[in-house]
Structures are given as C-alpha cells and as structure tokens.
Specification:
By secondary structure, the protein is of the alpha+beta class. It contains five helices and seven strands, in the order E-H-H-E-E-H-E-H-E-H-E-E.
C-alpha cells in the first residue's frame, strides 16, 4: 500500500472528523460526542500539530502533537529530558488496523517532536488497552507512572528522543 504522512490542512477536516467518529464506542476509546471536535482540530491546525496518513488521497490515520498542561505537570516525567512533547489522538481507520500504521504514525510524531526541539516524548495510555500497549512496546518506552485523568486509569509512557 502506498501512503504518505503530511501535515493536515483545512481540506482534510471532514475526513479527520469522520476518522475520529469511527473510533468512538470502540473498546478502550474514551472519546465521546464532544471530543475530539472541530475545536480540537482548530487547535491542532493552528499549531501545525496534526498529521495525517493518506492512501489514494483518503485520510486513513491521524496523530497530534498535544499541548496539555495537566499532563505535562504530572510528577512522573523525567525533568532531565525536558522539554517533553506529548503525542495524542492517534487514530487509524478500523479497516486498516493491525497493519503497523499506528506505529508509523508514532514514529512520525516522534520525529516531528525532535525536529521542533523536544528532548523527550510522553503520553498516556489506558492501562487496559492491550492493543495500544502492544503497539507501543516496539519503541522501548518506559512506563514511569500511573494516573487517573479524564475518568480513566492511565499508564504514563516516556522516552528520550535521540
């Protein structure tokens, strides 16, 4: 399959919303009718922080470089490798899952953070989301803590960007 990962544009908005909508109600997905939303996409687009994977011109995956002070302020993060950037809202269209696309999006997100001067990457993963945990294992992230936010229990993942 031929695909490319690009910075999302306004023209991708509806396809991104559709991709997000496909995730809602899936196991371990906490997203609801209010999140993620058009406002979430506005925030990401305004910061050049939303990347999409396209195949034949269609958006099949997305990832965001997040800014969330509540997450950044968790005490578990290693301050020696700050600033740390957060990856969030990774989504792959269900018909394309289990093909390594989420890993490719994570790799792209880490490269984008590094290019922007971040020294580390961190993110939260629902502690019961076996599929996501398996996906991320290949990267050798450290589980540096646990937290309860957004009505869920999370593992806190962190890795120095080298």
């Amino acid at each position: 399959m031929d695909y490319n990962i690009v910075l999302a544009s306004e023209q991708d908005r509806q396809q991104i919303l559709d991709l997000y909508e496909e995730q809602k109600g899936r196991e371990f997905c906490p997203w609801d009718e209010d999140y993620p939303s058009n406002e979430t996409i506005d925030f990401d687009l305004s910061r050049d922080a939303l990347f999409v994977m396209k195949a034949d011109g269609k958006v099949i995956a997305a990832i965001s470089l997040e800014v969330d002070e509540d997450v950044d302020n968790l005490v578990c993060w290693n301050r020696d490798i700050f600033p740390g950037g957060e990856l969030a809202r990774i989504a792959v269209t269900p018909s394309m899952q289990n093909r390594g696309l989420a890993r490719k999006m994570m790799q792209h997100g880490m490269e984008a953070l590094k290019e922007r001067g971040y020294k580390s990457v961190h993110f939260l993963v629902n502690k019961y989301n076996v599929k996501a945990i398996k996906c991320y294992a290949i990267f050798g992230y450290n589980v540096v803590g646990e937290c309860h936010m957004y009505d869920q229990d999370f593992l806190c993942y962190e890795k120095e960007l080298i």
